[in-house]
Amino acid sequence: MAHPNAGNTGARTLNFNVGVLGHVDSGKTSLARALSSTASTAAFDKNPQSKERGITLDLGFSAFTVPLPEHLREACGERYDHLQFTLVDCPGHASLIRTIIGGAQIIDLMLLVVDIVKGMQTQTAECLLIGQLTCSHMVIILNKTDLLPDDKKQSAIDKMTKRMHKTLENTRFKGCPVIAVAAKPGGPEAPDTEEAQGIIELMQLLKAQAFLPHRDPSGCLLMAVDHCFSIRGQGTVITGTILQGALHVNDTLEIPALKVHTHIAVILKRIPSAMQGDRVGVCVTQFDPKLLERGLVCTPGSLSTLHAGIITVQKIEYYRGALCSRAKFHITIGHETVMARVSFFSRTSLSSQSEVPSSGSPSAEEATPDPFSFDWEFHYQEEYLTGKGETEGQEQEQWALLEFERPVTCPPLCLVIGSRLDSDIHSNTCRLAFHGKLLEGFEDKNYTETSLPRLKISKDKHKEGAVERVTDDYTVIGRNLFKKETNLQLFVGLKVTLSSGETGVIEGGFGQSGKIKIRVPEGLKEETKQLLSSSSKKKGKGGAKNEPSKEDDAKADSQPIAIHLNFKRYVYDPQKKMVQS
After folding, report:
1. Which CATH number applies to 312-349+373-386+396-455: 2.40.50.140, 2.40.30.10, 3.10.180.10, 2.60.120.1600?
2. What global pTM score does this model have?
3. Hey, which CATH number is domain 222-302, 2.60.40.60, 3.30.470.10, 2.40.30.10, 2.20.140.10?
4. What are the tens digits of pLDDT across the range 165-210?
5. How far is the C-alpha of 193 from the C-alpha of 494, rounded, in Å?
6. Which of 52, 127, 336, 564 has the fewest CB atoms found within 10 Å of its own CB?
7. What's the CATH number of domain 13-209, 1.10.238.10, 3.40.50.720, 3.30.1330.50, 3.40.50.300?
8. Taking Cα atoms as reference points, which of 296, 306, 305, 397 lies closest to residue 345?
């Protein structure tokens, strides 16, 4: 059985993960096939549905190995003597964007494949956005040059290269290399006798672009599994890429989604261990391969299964819709995509200012501000706010609470992408809505009772009524502030302001119709008393039994003294208390 790590047995091989992304039918799988000399168990779309539709349905892996380039030999010293390019062929079909995001998180360099005849398409742009969030190096491949007429080929390549550089001008990939190839001349159905064009040059370019990725064997193991199958006589094999930490023969693995443990009996290629960035296959004991197709395995107890989480949030500028609180989005987190209800919030300006060190103090330079704290005061937002905040034109920092429809298993501080995958896949619109980083996770199923009350997110409330009459120099009766059925005891002690300038305190209800008694500690102004007494005299000139006429009632309603009640209520406070600053 061939495996990406199987070449050059005994050689020390540096693994370098290259993601092949692009629009459907741009020729990604043909390109990977042309580049590869080794096919892994997952390579080239074993999925029958994929063969039938002629598109990549899952992450295909394949690889080729070259002697370590000179510039890497200096960086690596004696540690490696070969460089292995593991090609991750991500699907380009629009409805499978969740699989692309899962693949992009394990990629060192991205190949963005563009059909030179069609140029940038909607999903090409989405792949570019995912690349910006997950990867720092990219090469653009202009594929299918065989479809261009010979006499116009070079000018078409030059024109598209120029257009690509212009597209990338304001991205992190500005100035990245662009190369033209024909990975499968004549198209996917053409016989294999036609030789691919530009592949040798592409391999040279990849060798030149390769760098020594940061690899850290410390910490807990986290491995992204892409395939699981059985081999007669050997048992169950799990293949995937190590995202963090390292694994060794005889290690115990946890499959957190299934809450089961298994042991590593042997690492394919007969090596004693593998570390972050390596693509490996391991034989495990007593595990049914049908239970796991893709997902995460880890050091036992190192991953959390969350019912909700708090993330930093930033809108993706190409997303055209509003980001509204209480709306549902597809959330890709770890290696899962799940629906979640999203609520946006930001810090209140008072709490933002109170904890910023002065620029002259040493702590202003040394202190790294916390990304989030339950001690802070937050303000609930009906939607994500676009535009600049108060601080010197900077983007306002915003967060979101995600409430998952089903529990998700993910590592701390992982990338989160929110999208609308139910949008029309054929429409020319970006479906990626926002991205962020997981800061806090809630593992308790009853998080709304146990954890959310710690989250001090408030909504500003305003009620307005009118002064009906004066009972003495220090007391007025107010109406239209509350409904008849309102529990007025909740509001006793809250301050109100009159439009005439006085400040009062709600003492309690008056009668049964929702009216209230307001105490004005400083006393009413003379002009206020005169205004209110003349208003009540007018009301007394009505019909029988001093009933005010409809005309007088209307006048009384439009009388100038209004009552204003401002307070805030914490969204997750189980007591629903009202607070005034």
Report:
1. 2.40.30.10
2. 0.78
3. 2.40.30.10
4. 999 998 999 999 999 999 888 776 777 667 888 988 999 999 999 9
5. 85
6. 52
7. 3.40.50.300
8. 397
Select from 538, 567, 531, 543 the least CA-distant residue to 554.
538
User: What pLDDT score does 361 carry?
Assistant: 35
The predicted structure's pLDDT at residue 351: 52
CB neighbours of 495 closer than 8 A, spacing ≥ 6? Answer: 503, 504, 505, 580
Sole residue written with tokens 């109170």 = 354
The H-assigned helical ranges of 309-417 are 349-354, 362-366
Render the burial of 489-526: b for 16+ CB within 10 Å, e for the rest: eebeebebebebebebebeebbeeebbbbbebeeebee
Q: What percentage of the chain has pLDDT greater than the value 70?
A: 80
- What is d(CA 184, CA 189) in angstroms, rounded to the nearest whole number? 9
Q: 284-313 burial by CB neighbour count: b if 16+ within 10 A, else e?
A: beebebeebebbbbbbeebbbebbbbbbbb
Q: Which position has the token pair 């009524």?
A: 465
What average pLDDT does this structure show over 59-76? Answer: 80
Report which residue type is found at 201.
Answer: E
Q: Under a CB-based contact definition with an 8 Å cutoff, are residues 323 and 386 in contact?
A: no
- Cα–Cα dist 20/59, whole Å: 10
Residues 221-242 have a mean pLDDT of: 86
State pLDDT tens for residues 211-223: 988 888 888 999 8
The 10s digit of each residue's pLDDT in 9-57 is 445 788 898 888 887 777 777 888 888 744 333 343 344 443 443 333 3
Q: Tokens 């896949």: give the residue.
A: 425
* 319/429 Cα distance (integer angstroms): 7
